[in-house]
Design brief:
376 residues; alpha/beta; eight-stranded parallel β-barrel
Length: 376
């Protein structure tokens, strides 16, 4: 343990500039008390010997970690604004891969929340159970509180369970992972790529089923995507349920990447006393999924979007109580979606620098979110 602590202290004492952290911010070491063999211990000991993680469902190879011996500086709330943000708004990262839990750069952020989307019937598919076991074990070893969002089946995308069947599957998950206590009813339930698009009343029954299955858990109403039907879908859901839930998940990719809040604010008017969690958000670097919805993209653009989320969207909308950026590291270059804070080659993007700044000094309300343009 003394050897491990020495490695940990040494790895975190190196100058922060190696990772392009602003030089004016002093390095602060994380607590060295970690169990041997956990993702934290592997990260702290230097990524040179870090074991590979299992392949993702798409077979994507893990992104490279920081080079052996690279410095990682712990992020701490060093200003009143940063402390207020951490107190009032939950900051998390969503990623389907467990790679981030063994990346020293993620460990140094001090982020203690992460989100994972799984299929409603995951417990019936052995390879899904194995992947879920791995992701949750690594999260738990790092002291990360997971948000698990249910969604369509990966073996039969259009299949929908009865509320009774969903409750049964949920109880199986609860029995296997009793320490997971934060759940979202359905991922992007209003998206018409989901079988729930025209079934808001059925999803209301799903919400009731999850609340019955775990009365003490934190259960989010269905997560909705900021498409034109978002507010009308939510109204139909609430009519079927008979009341308006307190907690909602929102994915505001469309408007955030257009630097707008019109649909978000329309939803807030529908849910004036509810708390909104942005359970998936972030700047789009690249998308090639044949969608007819046009969204700006690019690495510089993604950094601007990240600033816009924290410096405009969050300060201007106090109902927002959580922000989960998606995702940590990009998959292979031929993946159809890339909004990673880390490139496929393992390099950091501007969006990660923005997140570091937000965690250190807090939001800068109404500051410019645009990146400097080079003069022509």
């Amino acid at each position: 343990m003394r050897t491990l602590r020495a490695r940990w202290a040494g790895a975190l004492a190196v100058v922060a500039a190696v990772l392009a952290v602003p030089a004016a911010v002093p390095a602060v070491a994380l607590a060295p008390s970690v169990a041997t063999g956990t993702p934290v211990a592997r990260a702290a000991a230097g990524a040179a010997a870090a074991p590979a993680t299992p392949a993702t469902p798409q077979g994507a190879a893990p992104a490279a970690l920081a080079p052996p011996g690279a410095a990682v500086t712990a992020i701490v709330a060093s200003t009143p604004a940063a402390a207020a943000l951490r107190r009032d708004v939950r900051i998390g990262i969503g990623d389907q891969k467990p790679d981030m839990f063994s990346d020293p750069r993620f460990v140094a952020l001090g982020v203690k929340h992460a989100r994972l989307t799984i299929s409603w019937d995951a417990m019936t598919v052995p390879w899904e159970v194995q992947q879920l076991d791995t992701w949750l074990a690594d999260a738990r070893a790092d002291g990360i509180a997971p948000l698990i969002s249910l969604g369509h089946s990966r073996t039969d995308r259009r299949s929908l369970p009865t509320p009774e069947r969903l409750e049964y599957e949920f109880l199986r998950m609860r029995q296997r992972y009793p320490w997971v206590t934060t759940w979202a009813t359905w991922n992007e339930a209003n998206h018409c790529g989901e079988p729930t698009c025209h079934r808001p009343k059925l999803v209301a029954a799903y919400y009731r089923a999850l609340r019955r299955g775990c009365p003490k858990c934190t259960i989010l109403a269905p997560e909705v995507l900021d498409m034109p039907n978002m507010s009308s879908w939510v109204k139909q859901f609430c009519a079927g349920l008979g009341f308006k839930p307190k907690l909602w998940g929102v994915h505001n990719y469309v408007e955030a990447n257009r630097f707008k809040m019109t649909r978000l604010r329309a939803l807030l008017r529908v849910l004036p006393r509810s708390d909104i969690w942005l359970t998936e958000t972030g700047g789009l670097v690249r998308r090639d999924n044949d969608s007819t919805t046009t969204i700006p993209q690019g690495a510089r653009h993604a950094g601007e979007v990240t600033r816009y989320i924290f410096d405009r969207v969050v300060p201007d909308n106090p109902q927002i109580k959580a922000v989960y950026l998606y995702n940590w590291n990009a998959g292979p270059a031929d993946d159809s979606w890339d909004s990673g804070l880390i490139t496929p080659a393992g390099r950091e993007r501007t969006a990660l620098d923005v997140l570091r700044r937000v965690l250190r000094v807090g939001p800068r309300p109404h500051a410019s979110f645009r990146s400097p343009r080079k003069a022509r």
